[in-house]
Amino acid sequence: MIDHISIAVRDLKAGERFYTALLVTLGMTKLREWPDAAIGYGKKYPEFWINRRTDMAPIGADSGVHICLRASDAAMVDAFHAAALAGGGSSDGAPGFRAQYHENYYAAFIRDPDGNRIEAVTFVGKN
Q1: Cα 102 from chain centroid (whole Å)
Q2: Residues 50, 35: Cα–Cα separation, whole Å
Q3: Were both Cys, which of 41, 46, 105, 117 would link to 28 (CB 3.0–4.6 Å)?
Q4: What is the distance of C-alpha 45 from the center of its chain?
């Protein structure tokens, strides 16, 4: 089982602004910070980290990295997508059902300002 994930961002302060607004839509807040190095977000413990990597190469559109975070409902998925766009990210798939994955699969895909691909998903109508 995965305990936590971390992604690289070029500018930690810009990443903090983006991810603080984005992750609150999924119930996560900033829980830990290593000044000028890393910030951890989560619900009870840091489960999603951003790490400063000023010299990282641009992330290609065909990058295989894909992180999916669970949302409690469709409204959270919608808010996640809207927050990403408002914060300078881009849409990589608007909120909606993805029947090719599962009939109840409701998700949105975004790219952060550094090109990282993040998804939020919920299963509508499933207990």
Answers
A1: 21
A2: 12
A3: 41
A4: 16
Q: Is residue 33 part of a domain?
A: yes
Report yes or no on 59 lying in a domain. no
CB 99 within 8 A of CB 106: no
**Is residue 36 domain-resident?**
yes
Q: What is the CA radius of gyration of the chain?
A: 14
Buried b vs exposed e over 19-34: b needs ≥16 C-beta within 10 Å? bbbbbebbebebeeee
- Distance spanning both ends of the chain, measured CA to CA: 22
Does 60 fall in a domain? no
Total tally of structural domains belonging to the chain: 1
| Average pLDDT along the chain | 95
Which residue intervals of 1-127 are DSSP H helices? 12-23, 74-86
**What pLDDT digit, counting tens, does each position of 72-111 carry?**
999 999 999 999 999 999 999 999 999 999 999 999 999 9
* Token output for 47: 């489960």
